[in-house]
Amino acid sequence: MLKYMTYSLKNVFIIYLINQFFSKISNFFKGWYFDGFLFFWKKLRNILGAMDYTFAVRITIRNWMRPLYQDRTILGYILGPIFRTARILIGSFIYLIVFLIWLSILAIWFSIPIYLIYGSIFGMP
Predict the structure, then answer these.
(1) Cβ atoms of residues 56 and 83 within 8 Å
(2) pLDDT, tens digit (0-9, with 9 covering 90-100), for 1-18
(3) Model confidence over 61-119: pLDDT tens digits?
(4) What region, left, alpha or beta, does residue 70 occupy, with left being phi > 0 and alpha being psi -120 to 50 degrees?
């Protein structure tokens, strides 16, 4: 009888170890990919928020057709949309560059585990 119980405990222990192994791998990939994406997303939002404080693209879009600096002369009505359009285009271009840099950092972050797994199986280049 003791022989069968020992064998049963060994099976339970092996099943527990296998379960823990896959659980740790699952938690790693969840933490690396999902939580990593959330971390980088929050950083991007903070950077773009700080940049919007400088470039004020949202406010400029809202006031796009209004006269520049509340100058209600014909010159203010002509120059306002021109300068604001330039400011929107320049700010949007800089936002796009920051987004592309963020996207490439995120792609590198996502590819690190794949590169390490591939390198450990087939040898590092």
Answers:
(1) no
(2) 445 555 566 778 888 889
(3) 888 888 777 778 888 788 888 888 999 999 999 999 999 999 999 999 999 998 988 88
(4) left
Task: Determine the 3-state secondary structure of 90 from DSSP.
Answer: helix
**Could you count the other beta carbons within 10 Å of the beta carbon of residue 80?**
19
The tokens describing 40, both together, are: 């980088």
What does the pLDDT read at residue 25? 92
Contact in structure between 40 and 102 (CB atoms under 8 Å):
yes
Half-sphere exposure of 60 (CA within 13 A, CB side): 19
Q: How are the residues of the chain apportioned to helix, strand and coil, as percentages rounded to the nearest 5?
A: 90, 0, 10
Computed from CA positions of residues 75, 78, 80, 86, in that sequence, does the dihedral angle turn out positive or negative? negative
Residue 6 tokens, joined:
């020992």
